[in-house]
Amino acid sequence: MLSRCNVLRKPIAFVSALASAGAALLIVSSSEALGATFVPAKEDPIVLMQTTKGPIKVQIYKVEAPITSNNFLDLVNRHFYDGLTFHRYEPGFVIQGGDPTGTGGGNFTDPKTKKDRCIALEKKDFLRHDAAGVIAMARTNDPNSASCQFYFTLAAADFLDNPPGYAVFGKVVDGLPNVMKLRKGDKMTKVSVEK
Q1: pLDDT 10s digits, 27-71
Q2: Which CATH number is 6-28+43-193's, of 2.40.100.10, 3.40.50.620, 3.90.600.10, 3.90.1530.10?
Q3: What is the DSSP secondary-structure string of the chain?
């Protein structure tokens, strides 16, 4: 199946695309030592998501998942998520949001190119769906179709790590009870980078 998105496959291409849009970016590599305990980088930013169920703070793994994180942070800085709804709730599994149409079928359309922007799947073995509060990109059956929609896990969902998997790019560090209360139709009133 062909993706209808303009897929960004490499950090360098993504940096160029965002830099031309005026975004300030820093890409830093990290090791992917299997079996090591994952500790987020100190410089990974915190995003504050104000919702109709209360505030949620999410640490974004910018160092560990630069393509996915920089895509999300670019959308946050554009205020793209402000006012959008959570359009999918699966009890004990996920709450999903970030679709500008509110239907589950929408993508981010770059205002300069007028094309949907999608990113290549950036799956890291040490970033796992191992607990409630993990944030990852939603996508279609095409692994390289993630655009703007994301989900929070409501419980461990290890099967989402099976190939090809989904791109985990952060975790809730404060406000998990608010995540657990979210339902279809709840809104993100304001989403911003806190640090």
Answers
A1: 333 434 444 567 888 889 999 999 999 999 999 999 999 999 999
A2: 2.40.100.10
A3: ---SSEEE-SHHHHHHHHHHTT-----------TTSPP---TT--EEEEEETTEEEEEEE-TTTSHHHHHHHHHHHHTTTTTTPBEEEEETTTEEEE--TTSSS---PBPTTT-SBEEE-----TTS---STTEEEE---SSTT-B-S-EEEESS--GGGGSTT---EEEEEEE-HHHHHH--TT-BEEEEEE--
